[in-house]
Structure formats: structure tokens, C-alpha cells
Write a structure and sequence with these properties.
Largest interface: A-B, 34 and 28 residues
Shape of chain A: globular
Order of helices and strands of chain B: HHHHHHHHHHHHH
Structural class of chain B: mainly alpha
Number of helices of chain A: 9
CATH class of chain B: Mainly Alpha
Number of domains of chain B: 1
Structural class of chain A: alpha/beta
Helix content of chain B: over 70%
Bound molecules: adenosine-5'-triphosphate, magnesium ion
Shape of chain B: globular
Largest sheet of chain A: 6 strands, mixed
CATH superfamily of chain B: ABC transporter involved in vitamin B12 uptake, BtuC
Oligomer: heterodimer
Strand content of chain A: 15-25%
CATH topology of chain B: ABC transporter involved in vitamin B12 uptake, BtuC
Chain lengths: 233, 282
């Protein structure tokens, strides 16, 4: 049984369809990169998988005992106000919210999970720092740690490297690859970097004017040319 | 100095002064706790609108000649809070325009009703004390004190029990919803609690000054601290101190309670900004 399987999915807003007839699967341990030009509906797909909006047609099914609320999500943009007082520790811990249910206060175990994830991403020295005073790369790592607290199975990352310098970008890719290889966490990542996608991912999903879903090898052979990205490269 | 203390002791011997202090502290505590969320969620305009609604509701209650105006005011204000939140979330209608409409409307209708139906000889005095809470904290009846006490304890309990959820929803509502937090329910809870606080705070500072009570301590604390917990705690402490100070000064100097408390909050905010600026610059 796949972790996530989407069948004949149509996505859009207010009766206006953006993506039609999308079908793909994510198995546990997969590393799926979603590519497509700006505005093709990549973020919309993620929001639909997460249940933040309803699909216009088709079905999304979760298998292998995965619950929709147990997905680790890294949003494309987190609109945090400039003056928001929140420490790194508080934010990472808030990823454990889905374990909490209606019970008040985090348990010792949940605090331990948060600590473990901060350690994994090298955030322990920053634990007491204020989120808004961190660099973009550090903030991104904090949000990744929060996403890890919410899941043991699958991460949905919406352009996790946008705005990061080449070194920090490489670190981010390495971190995600490590999580995927060593901990068996499935990764679904939206990316505009087609080369990195081919290097790290196991599967590619292209949406936009041409739809494609398959392994990287199949994509290299017969994938539709991704006009916007190829032109940029 | 000992003269002042003596005078204080004399006043504190009166039960209504003690009631005023207790209720004042509880209200200050509640409003400061929720104030942080209100400011960060950009909900402060809802608080402001609701305080005007509470004035209108109070006017209706007094026209109906209810002996205790608080229950009706409470119900009407909570209803409006829910309504405002609904329209605010509906992207098609502008949230702030709706708030402005409802709040100004309530203010106008309230004053109109009072003018048309009031039998009191001192209408402008009544209106003034509802708007600025000039003396009402000292004239609370025992039932009002008990009701205020119970309500504020409930507010504090709700805040503590839902603290983690309030943080998630305030920090990043999208993520909170994606991981299964009932964000709508949480926002509703926050709106209802705000309505309760506003009706409570009307006794203390009057409906025009409530926003100050809610917003100043949070803003002051945000100058000094950088984690959500420390800001919340600091804002509660500052608010309680300012309330006690304000009430005592107003008793000793004979100034209006509400504006004295707000003045204390303002001074506190200026001090905190200065400290923040000095620390930031150093
Ligand atoms: N809240 C919304 N209401 C209506 N339309 C929207 C909304 N959000 C996005 N859209 C539209 O949906 C389309 C897809 O948007 P989406 O954010 O999914 O694109 P994307 O593939 O993530 O693009 P990017 O690479 O720029 O992030 C766009 O045409 C956009 O204008
Ligand atoms: Mg996007």
C-alpha cells in the first residue's frame, strides 16, 4: 500500500481548474521531486494533499497507517511578522501539536523528540535564540525541525532552498537526503532546480502544460522538456 | 510617607476598595494574557470594535431597566465577536470595514437609545462613566464581584490549558491546520474569550479605554523579551502591577480609575521602550 496515492486529481480555486487529471503515488522511502513552472499549481497540490483545501475532483488516499495530520510540512513562505517573539525551541516543539490532541501541555517524551530533532539539524546552540533574529538558512532549518516533529514517515517540502546561498543550499539537500536514506522518511519536494532533482530524487512529478510522473531514469529518457527551467539553465 | 500608608490602610478597610483591587488585578491579568495573542494575530482591531459593541449592549440593557446589566452585555458582545470573526475570515468582505461598521453603529445606537429612553437625570454623566469607567469599579455589587472573579478565573484557566494551541495558531495558522489543529475552533475560542474580557474590563476602565489595557502590556513586554512564554508572563506581571498602582493612586489622589491605570500602562510602555532601546543599542 502506498503512503499517498492520488487518482485523477483536479486542483484549483473557486471553480477554476488549474491542474487536471493528476495521478501519482508516493511509496514509503521514496524521494519525489515536483517540478513545473511558476503558477503551475505545485503549492496548490501540496495544500490539497494536506487537506488545507478540497480537491475539485478525484481522490487522495493515505495508506500504510499514515494519517493526514502526521505529515511534516515546510511551507513555501511562512508569514511570520517581523516582531513575533518566539524562541527556536518553542517553534520546534509546536511541531508536536498533532500528538497532543486535546490534552494540554507537552509531555516529557514530546520535549525529548523536539530536542532530538534540534540536535539532528544542529540547532541546539540556537535553542534559546529568537526566531526572527536568525538568518534565512537557520530559519529554514528550524521549520524543518518542526516538520520532523510532526512526522516519522513523510515530509512535504515546498521550495526549501529558495533564497539560500549555494553552500547552505547544498547543506539543506544533504540534510534532506540523510533523513531520506538513514531514517527512511519519504520526501516530497517542490523544486525549481532540475539538476538537483535528478541527482537526489528517485521520482519526478512534473505538472503544468505537460504532465509527467515516473522515475528519474524514465524522466531523463522521455520526460517532457521543462521549457522554463531549461531556458534558464 | 507614613501618612500615605495610613490613608491607604484606612481605605483598604472598606470592602468595596478591596473588591475593586481584586477584580482589577484579575481583569488586568486576563487582558494582558490574551493581549499578546491579540496583538500578534492582528486581532486588536476586533478588540477595539467589540468594546464599542459592549457600550451599545450596555445601553440596551439599561433601557430595558435590567438590575444587572452584565449578563445581557456579555451575551450580545460574544455574539458580535463570533459574527466579526466570521466576516473577518470571509475574504470577500473586508474584515476591518465590517468591524468599523459594527462598532460605530453600536456606539451610535447605544447613545441614541440612552437619549430616547433614559429616565436618569444625569445622562451625560452615565454615558461618560460607561465610556471612561470613571467610578464603576468602586460601586460594584457583590454579585458583580463574584461574577467578574469567576469569569476571569475561567479565562485564565482556558488560556493555560490551551496555551500550546494558542501559540501554534498564532505563530503559523497554516502549519497548525495541516497538522490537525482545529484552527477555526481555536480562533472562535479566542474571540469569545476576548468578548468576555472586554465586558469585564468595562467595569474597570470603561469601553473606550479597554484597548489600552489589552495592548499596552503586550507591547511593553515585546520590547524586553523574545520568547512567547517570557513575553506572556512579563505582560501579565506588568499589567497587574500597573492596575494595582493605578487603582491605589486613583484612590489616594481622587483621579478617575480607568484613565489612571491606562496612564500607568503608558508610562510603563515608555520605560520598557527606553530599556529595550538601550539594550539593543549597547
Ligand atoms: N488563494 C488563491 N486563490 C485563487 N487562486 C490562487 C490562490 N493561490 C494561488 N492561486 C492561483 O493558482 C495557481 C497555482 O498557484 P501555486 O501557488 O500552486 O503555484 P506554484 O506552482 O506553487 O508556483 P510557484 O513556483 O511560483 O510557487 C496560480 O495561477 C495562482 O494564481
Ligand atoms: Mg509554490
Amino acid at each position: 500500500m502506498s503512503l499517498i496515492s492520488c487518482e485523477n486529481l483536479s486542483l484549483g480555486y473557486d471553480g477554476h481548474v488549474i491542474v487536471r487529471d493528476l495521478s501519482f503515488r508516493v511509496e514509503s522511502g521514496d524521494y519525489l521531486c515536483i517540478v513545473g513552472e511558476n503558477g503551475s499549481g505545485k503549492s496548490t497540490l501540496m495544500r490539497t494533499i494536506l487537506g488545507l483545501q478540497a480537491p475539485m475532483a478525484g481522490r487522495i488516499e493515505f495508506g500504510d497507517g499514515l494519517l493526514r495530520t502526521q505529515i511534516g510540512y515546510l511551507p513555501q513562505q511562512t508569514q511570520v511578522q517581523r516582531d513575533f517573539p518566539a524562541s527556536v525551541r518553542e517553534i520546534v516543539l509546536s511541531g508536536c501539536q498533532n500528538r497532543q490532541g486535546l490534552r494540554p501541555f507537552y509531555t516529557r517524551k514530546e520535549k525529548e523528540i523536539a530536542r532530538g530533532n534540534m540536535e539532528k539539524l544542529g540547532l541546539l546552540p540556537l535553542a534559546r535564540r529568537c526566531y526572527r533574529e536568525l538568518s534565512g538558512g537557520q530559519q529554514q532549518r528550524v521549520l524543518l525541525a518542526r516538520a520532523l516533529c510532526a512526522t516519522q514517515r513523510i515530509l512535504l517540502l515546498d521550495e526549501p532552498v529558495s533564497g539560500l546561498d549555494p553552500i547552505v543550499t547544498a547543506e539543506m539537500y544533504d540534510t534532506v537526503e540523510r533523513l531520506n536514506r538513514e531514517e527512511g522518511i519519504a520526501v516530497v519536494m517542490i523544486s525549481h532546480d532540475i539538476d538537483a532533482a535528478m541527482r537526489y530524487a528517485s521520482h519526478i512529478l512534473q505538472i503544468g502544460s505537460d504532465l509527467f510522473f515516473g522515475t528519474c531514469a524514465e524522466y531523463a529518457e522521455s520526460g517532457p522538456v521543462l521549457t522554463a527551467e531549461r531556458r534558464q539553465a | 510617607m507614613s501618612g500615605v500608608l495610613e490613608k491607604l490602610a484606612q481605605y483598604l478597610a472598606f470592602p468595596f476598595v478591596r473588591y475593586a483591587l481584586i477584580v482589577g488585578v484579575l481583569i488586568a491579568l486576563c487582558s494582558a494574557l490574551l493581549g499578546v495573542t491579540l496583538v500578534l494575530k492582528r486581532f486588536s482591531f476586533i478588540g477595539d470594535g467589540l468594546s464599542h459593541v459592549a457600550f451599545g449592549a450596555m445601553a440596551i440593557a439599561s433601557v430595558l431597566k435590567l438590575t444587572d446589566q452584565m449578563p445581557l452585555t456579555l451575551v450580545l458582545t460574544i455574539l458580535c465577536a463570533v459574527l466579526l470573526l466570521r466576516t473577518g475570515q470571509n475574504a470577500k468582505i473586508h474584515g476591518d470595514a465590517a468591524v468599523a461598521m459594527i462598532s460605530v453603529g453600536a456606539l451610535a445606537i447605544g447613545y441614541l437609545l440612552l437619549n430616547l429612553f433614559s429616565t436618569s437625570g444625569n445622562l451625560s454623566g452615565d454615558v461618560c462613566s460607561t465610556l471612561f469607567g470613571s467610578t464603576s469599579i468602586l460601586t460594584l455589587t457583590k454579585t458583580q464581584v463574584v461574577l467578574s472573579g469567576v469569569l476571569s478565573l475561567i479565562v485564565v484557566a482556558v488560556f493555560v490549558l490551551f496555551y500550546d494551541k494558542i501559540f501554534s495558531v498564532t505563530f503559523d495558522e497554516t502549519f497548525a491546520r495541516a497538522t490537525g489543529t482545529r484552527a477555526e475552533a481555536c480562533n472562535l475560542l479566542i474571540a469569545v474569550v476576548i468578548a468576555v474580557i472586554i465586558v469585564l474590563a468595562m467595569n474597570l476602565v470603561g469601553s473606550l479605554l479597554i484597548s489600552a489595557l489589552v495592548i499596552f502590556p503586550a507591547l511593553s513586554a515585546m520590547r524586553l523579551f523574545k520568547s512567547f512564554l517570557s513575553v506572556t508572563v512579563c505582560s501579565a506581571v506588568l499589567s497587574v502591577c500597573c492596575a494595582v498602582l493605578g487603582i491605589l493612586i486613583s484612590i489616594l489622589a481622587g483621579t478617575p480609575v480607568g484613565s489612571t491605570i491606562v496612564a500607568a500602562d503608558l508610562v510603563c510602555f515608555i520605560l520598557c521602550s527606553l530599556i529595550g532601546a538601550i539594550r539593543g543599542g549597547a
